[in-house]
Amino acid sequence: MINTLDHEFLSCSSGSYFFITLSNPAEYLMVDPRSFIKPDTYSRIQITPFVKKIDSRLKWHSPEARKCYLHNERKLSIFQQYTEMNCNYECVLNETLTICGCVSFNMAYLVATSVKICGLAKKSCMVKAQQASYLPEMQIICKCLPTCSVVEYEITYTSQYDDWSYMKSTNIVKNNARGATIEFVFHKPYFTAYISTSIVDLNSLISNIGGLISLCLGLNLINLFEILYIMIKMVSNYIVHMFDKI
């Protein structure tokens, strides 16, 4: 439950709202997904988790082969924990600092105090640096692969009007306050887990190679018997032909 005085609402052109956003605490805070909650409403936020993992046999492959990083396999210079989003954001920050010689105001707390903050005159430069950081050649340099174990969430919002006067009668909120009720629930009592595995593992590869070698050897043995049969047939025909002349 959230409540506030009228003058403490987030003011928008169409009215006053509560502003909420959901994000991974290990990642750089992004405003998406976000929602504007109207006062005097009941909102239910349904969360659907998706778990992605890799087969244990893929851990011995290189990150380039498995297309992901294991836990603590990749370190970042700014963020303590590696995620694909943190890596991309750090790539944008480094590219902005290299091209423009400064960083945007929302990146200021991530760098040293001696680093300059870009003003409006550097806006076009910052946009150019951000676009350049997502080019294929920069992605090769940044190497921002996803993590091999990922938990993602799908968010669904549903809202309906609530009787806020009931909340006032419980003395939980002040009489001059307005507010909203927000409930976080899981959409389903279970979640879907995706496991990445190799189409052809080492055992299958050895079996396929052995099968091909066996097939080739089998064909060679058959050909050998066919050659011997033909030679014997030719010799026998020659002997019979010689006796016929006698």
UniProtKB/TrEMBL annotation:
Protein name according to UniProt: Uncharacterized protein
Q: Which Gene Ontology molecular-function terms are recorded? A: ligand-gated sodium channel activity
Q: Which organism is it from?
A: Acyrthosiphon pisum
Q: Keyword set for this entry?
A: Ion channel, Ion transport, Membrane, Sodium, Sodium channel, Sodium transport, Transmembrane, Transmembrane helix, Transport
| Matches recorded under InterPro entries | ENaC
Q: Where found?
A: Membrane
Q: How does it sit in the membrane?
A: Multi-pass membrane protein
- Membrane-spanning intervals of the chain: 209-232
Q: In which family does this protein belong, per the annotation?
A: Belongs to the amiloride-sensitive sodium channel (TC 1.A.6) family.
User: What Gene Ontology cellular-component terms does the record carry?
Assistant: plasma membrane
